[in-house]
Specification:
Elements lengths: L8 H7 L1 H7 L10 H6 L3 H4 L28 H4 L21 E5 L3 H13 L7 E5 L22 H6 L3 E4 L6 H14 L4 E5 L3 E4 L10 H15 L3 E6 L4 E5 H6 L12 H11 L3 E5 L3 E4 L23 H18 L4 H6 L14 H23 L27
Parallel strand pairs: 1-2, 1-4, 2-3, 6-8
Antiparallel strand pairs: 4-7, 5-9, 6-7
Helix pairs in contact: 1-2, 1-11
Bound molecules: 2-acetamido-2-deoxy-beta-D-glucopyranose (NAG) (3 copies).
Length: 405
């Protein structure tokens, strides 16, 4: 997925403590400006905020073990032997659709890991769609890219796992991709959909007194949401690493502003949702980790053969620890996303190949331009539009922020 940055100061300022937490999400997605985020966070909140990430790989440190290049991280799938999931994770008694969209631009290995983690946590493969936003047209479908190409995606593998793939017509920005999701939902006649970042790993909480998989809990959240019949806009699982979206709400505010392609575009749309009274509540379904590296073998996401329904096993404990370490690694700037990306740097000369460093710089350029445009649009450059007295329709007017003297 294209780098994005999520910063929800607008909602936060409006909504009090729990909403305030959402702000922190800005610092844990792919492209962040934690410097900007930090300015507005009281000291007591800072500890939760991961440190900034860099765009260039950090200099190599002694004793920082290199993750060796691995072309295959799921050998069992390659051998046609995808493991069984815990039968407790399978939800049978629901007739609710749970469409889950995962956008993908770069890093097949992170995508495969995210997809497999959702499947292992009970999400039915038939409900999962990878939105191929690589912008390489049919090249991946035809198997023309090699594994070291950042835009490589193995269609055969996703099909083998039962997961659908839908291609965007061309490379879209983050805001465009979000509107693509909404339009896709409209086309499919869906009133709501889930979307997830591709650089996450979900894990069902096996320590719960009454065990429920990530999927079962997500279905419960959905069922309760639909029952409430409230003016709900979004349900945010761990910031917005997984989000349930009300299509009606997004239509009401006119969708995402594609003229703000990456950073601040979430502030813009989430503020507009709030201005129109669409709620945005944090909810939970289990552990969700934000990672920039991958497990050595994705089989670890599945229970051991013959012990499928056992909970709180050594495997679970070790996996949870490893995922926590991976998340910490990403946030500590000590490798993480860039460290990984630097390893998948091949594919020169293959169809639609772009210079990965140039691609990154180009995205940073548009991130900056998007921030400029946000400021033009609102006469204000920060996320807390609501706190500064902005109402629906105040964009592109002479309205100035209410700043106490
Ligand atoms: C893609 O996945 C399929 C199905 O698992 C596998 O047979 C094939 O080797 C993979 N392709 C590459 C290039 O790894
Ligand atoms: C999980 O396993 C650990 C180690 O065996 C044990 O200490 C802990 O009490 C267990 N927790 C639950 C909720 O079963
Ligand atoms: C939102 O709620 C406020 C307070 O209840 C109300 O005054 C306002 O008219 C509502 N706005 C919309 C667009 O429904």
């Amino acid at each position: 997925m294209p780098p994005i940055s999520l910063n929800r100061r607008a909602i936060l300022a409006f909504g009090g403590t729990f909403l305030f937490l959402l702000l922190l999400s800005g610092a844990v997605t792919n492209h962040v400006r934690p410097d900007l985020v930090q300015k507005h966070i009281p000291d007591s909140w800072k500890s939760k905020l991961p440190p900034p990430q860099q765009d260039e790989p950090p200099p190599k440190k002694e004793g920082n073990p290199e993750q060796a290049w691995q072309e295959e991280i799921f050998p069992l799938a390659k051998a046609g032997k995808v493991p069984k999931i815990n039968p407790k994770n399978i939800v049978r008694e629901t007739n609710l659709k749970t469409p889950l969209l995962i956008g993908f631009t770069r890093n097949w290995y992170l995508l495969e890991q995210a997809v497999v983690s959702y499947l292992a946590a009970g999400w039915p493969a038939s409900q999962l769609t990878v939105i191929d936003n690589t912008g390489v047209m049919d090249s991946n479908l035809r198997g023309l890219l090699t594994a070291k190409n950042p835009w490589y995606l193995n269609h055969t593998r996703l099909t083998q796992l039962g997961v659908s793939v839908k291609r965007t017509p061309t490379l879209l920005s983050f805001a465009q991709l979000q509107n693509f999701f909404i339009n896709y939902a409209i086309e499919q006649d869906l009133g709501y959909f889930f979307w997830s970042h591709m650089d996450v790993v979900v894990l069902s909480d096996e320590l719960l007194p009454e065990y429920k998989s990530v999927y079962e809990r997500a279905v419960e959240v959905l069922a309760n949401t639909l029952e409430e019949r409230r003016h709900w806009g979004l349900k945010l699982f761990a910031y917005d690493w997984l989000t349930l979206v009300n299509v009606e709400a997004m239509k009401d505010v006119g969708g995402w502003d594609t003229q703000i392609p990456f950073y601040m575009t979430d502030c813009d749309v989430y503020s507009r949702l709030t201005m129109r009274n669409w709620t945005q509540d944090p909810v939970s379904a289990g552990f969700i980790y934000d990672v920039g590296s991958h497990l050595k073998d994705l089989a670890i996401l599945y229970p051991e053969e013959g012990h499928e329904s056992e909970l709180n096993t050594t495997r679970f404990t070790n996996l949870k620890m490893e995922l926590e370490a991976m998340m910490k690694e990403k946030q500590s700037n000590n490798g993480g996303r860039n460290y990984w990306q630097a390893r998948q740097d091949g594919g020169q000369g293959e169809p639609f190949w772009r210079n990965p460093k140039g691609f990154e710089r180009g995205i940073n350029f548009w991130i900056d331009k998007g921030r400029e445009l946000f400021r033009l649009k609102w006469n204000y450059g920060d996320c807390d539009l609501i706190a500064k007295g902005y109402s629906y329709g105040d964009d592109w007017t002479d309205k100035k922020p209410n700043i106490p003297q």
